[in-house]
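pasting for ref
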Amino acid sequence: MIVHHDAEHDCLTVQLGERFDFSIHRDFHDACLGSGAAARSYVIDLGEVTSMDSSALGMLLLLREHAGADRADIRIVNAGGELRSTLRVAGFDKLFVLH
C-alpha cells in the first residue's frame, strides 16, 4: 500500500496492492482513519487489486463515515471489470464516485 497526502489540496491517495482484504485492515485504518481529522478528499486506487473481500467493502464504508458520509468526497479509481461489477452489485456506485 502506498499512501500520499497532497497537503495543498488536502487529498489523501491510497494505492492498494494486489489484495484488498482483511489482511490490510490495520494499515488501511492507520492510513485513512488513524490521524483523527478527515482529509478534504480521498482517492482509492484499485489499479493493482486482483481480489477484494467483504471486509474491503466494510473498510470503504468506515472511510465514508469518517469523511462525512453523504458529504464525503471519495473517488474509487482504476477498478477492473470484476471489481467494478462487485462494487456496483453492492450498491457502492451510489455511495462513491467510481472512475
